[in-house]
């Protein structure tokens, strides 16, 4: 770059783009880089969804000025350019950041006059140095192969040079291209294979595209026949549930490799001559001992075995399914999971079998990159969970059985003790939340996790009975989807997963839908089942993390009735730290005070983490066999679950002695609302008052303007809709804040502008009758009768009732029809004007 120094002082006035054109690109060309090897404005991520006072905004995506590729679509270095007059040091940190994101060990910063190389090839001792010229493509490619550990293997360069496949198309007909982290994962896996590693683990958060990763990995391997004796490899894609094999087979692999070369093993004779096989463990182990179906394939028949959700049964060292992997041990086995498991109690260790992951992409990474939905969290406490439930001496359940005297707590509910009102209250709360957060009249799709199938059935019934209007419009508004529901449940699941499907809106399950199912439209994940397993918790939360642009879903809500979300506080969870604020209530469940608390609220009776170490599945006996909560056989469908005979007997005995009670006083004793802080990374819990305060101030009105708009029925409806979209149910606000005697508009004003006095509805009525008696007397007797009834309605229910539409409900219906009542005011429109005038006089005084 010696010629650069001959430039005049005018060069210092150049923009960054001019600097690149006149100096950076020529310098790269001088080092041997062809135009096709230089990718400009290389998009890395989507830009984080950052919370604002008006929902979310998309942060600026990371875009590298240049990425260098020796072969197409395989980045090997980043170049960050700054304008000529700036110091080259201004680009160093940016170049380092982009390189680390892309999994690269070499990055360059330049201002057209100088070049700085950032070398991460030795992670313990990274080096930053000034250089005169960019390295050549051959030199940098050699370094890349060396840092991948494949420079001494002839196969390494070939595997890392194979092309990606772009057959799959998006809805706009553009090619589906792997994201940056998927490319890094593929590169790491190919390098491990080239190093002759036979067990490879890839860990990616739920919703980040493990299937796309697997497809691209297989596609690239198909283009490297020398790695498999001069032929294309044979691949086995292995999982434990139909939905985990059917979806990738139908939507991905058949589209790329064709139906003739993609085959699902369904039993019977072992078919051959295909490229990619899909199979369930359960299918492969069919047959008498020693004659199982998988034995019909020679041990070395498959070259690659992809194990989806590898944290499940196959990782158990003494599990029956492990024998399938051991049979195909000559193959390279690639484990995919979001949640590796290391559980000594169940002899399950993903790391022990597959080794440490060659690549990890966490939930936190996905949210920060804008590829996953950020979330809000609500913790709802019920009195029987906090205080426990103790039956009276000699009390009997609804079936006439005497209940043993004991203090029952959360670990007993739905297993030993069923309190019907507990489920019914949770159902009502959930429906209130869905109605309050509906967008354009459409309730958000919701996934509810219950303790077991029986609990899921009761929750389904409670939701059904609490939503008569929704059920009348949508007969399948709520569905239970568990293993027992067979093909009907499968059909409901397919509809639930569709973004353009209106029903079911609510899917109730126990464990069936906790893993391996893409459900982008889900806006609410409801936790009504206790969890002690971090992998299970991450999987459940992952049901809501997928973005769904088709319906504008950019975030989701977690509603936790059982404090399962305390696992957010565990260091093993890669989500944000939490600050806790609790709403305190009286014995009627009304919020009366709030307090900041750290750490999370103390648990109710027997709700400690250790107590949840008991089996998470509930078991029932059918036709002589033992089945888990989703109807799968313990002996096969969930290998690795507890199968000890004494343990099963204990669980079955407990199930037979489950007591069901009715008539228990159950109410909400507290609610916590979490929102993302402005940094988009951390969650903060806020009181209802704080939430309302921020939302009202967003309206950009002063108190007088707010009252004036509220007084007019039409503008009041607009305000109420705006607040509802911000998750404030104005008509429930007096109840939520424990001030039922105060009108919503007065609460809105007092919470938003602290220090303004709160006036009760009785005080407003007294003032109105004293100051505006002549206003009422200005109307004829029959019109005055309507206005007096309006004042009574205000006293009972508040200002939202001050509108002509209220004339359609008692006591007005006893006075006559709406047309007759409005005619009492004379000309058309006079009734509207009179009621709005009444509201203005009643509500605008301070």
TrEMBL record:
PANTHER family recorded: ATP-DEPENDENT HELICASE IRC3-RELATED, TYPE I RESTRICTION ENZYME ECOKI R PROTEIN
**EC numbers, comma separated:** 3.1.21.3
Task: Kindly provide the name given to this protein in its UniProt entry.
Answer: Type I restriction enzyme R subunit
What species was this sequence derived from?
Streptomyces avidinii
The record lists the lineage as: Bacteria, Bacillati, Actinomycetota, Actinomycetes, Kitasatosporales
**CDD domains this protein is in?**
DEXHc_RE_I_III_res, SF2_C_EcoAI-like
- Boundaries of each Helicase ATP-binding domain copy? 191-358
> GO MF terms on file?
type I site-specific deoxyribonuclease activity
Q: What class of enzyme is it?
A: hydrolase
The record's annotation in Gene3D superfamilies points to:
3.90.1570.30, P-loop containing nucleotide triphosphate hydrolases
Ordered alphabetically, the record's keywords are: Hydrolase
Region named Disordered: 590-642
